[in-house]
UniProtKB/TrEMBL annotation:
This is HNH endonuclease. Residues 71-120 form the HNH nuclease domain. The keyword rRNA processing does not apply. CDD domains: HNHc. It comes from the Bacteria. It comes from Streptomyces tsukubensis. Gene3D superfamilies: 1.10.30.50. GO terms for molecular function: endonuclease activity. Pfam families: HNH_5 (PF14279).
Length: 168
């Protein structure tokens, strides 16, 4: 499901919600559309509005603490822009820099995007042991980065059919 980024009234990214939820928030005047998918509109109730990509809450919401971006394989691929950390070619897998068998964990700092070939070649070794230096060091994305990266991947072609405007 396509997600919409939610900004606080102060423009600080808060979270993502489903498109349906975003539309409801706008219809209830709890949020305004800050950025819309170009040329796309959604019919909701008896209204028509721009398809929200980013909405901003009308009232400021106090956030007690900032959540860290939860680790995920998909998140690692997005963070590394689907480029292999060892050769720079297209990555489809996630490599544990310190292999799991040696105590390496599922963390942002221990995982990198990796092409299937290099993942196989590196196998159960550290980069040093395998003679495969990292082209760049893994890093922990901020929650806002993680959300923006996931939004950047959104593909207009992936829009659900029911959201598309019928041809005039
Ligand atoms: Zn590679």
């Amino acid at each position: 499901m396509r997600d919409t980024l939610v900004l606080n009234a102060s423009f600080e990214p808060l979270s993502t919600v489903t498109l349906n939820r975003a539309v409801v928030l706008v219809l209830q005047d709890k949020a305004v559309v800050e950025q819309a998918h170009p040329g796309l509109r959604v019919r909701a109730a008896s209204m028509e509005l721009p398809l929200p990509r980013v909405i901003r809450l009308s009232r400021y919401v106090r956030v007690p603490f900032r959540r860290r971006a939860p680790w995920s394989r998909r998140g690692v691929l997005v963070r590394d822009r689907h480029k292999c950390a060892y050769c720079g070619r297209r990555a489809t897998t996630v490599d544990h820099v310190i292999p799991r068998s040696r105590g390496g964990g599922d963390t942002w700092l221990n995982t990198v995007a990796c092409c299937a070939e290099d993942n196989h070649r590196k196998a159960d070794r550290t980069p040093e042991q395998a003679g495969m230096p990292l082209l760049r060091m893994p890093f922990e994305p901020s929650p806002a980065d993680a959300m923006l990266l996931s939004l950047a991947r959104a593909d207009l072609l992936a829009l659900p059919k029911w959201l598309e405007q019928p041809a005039a």
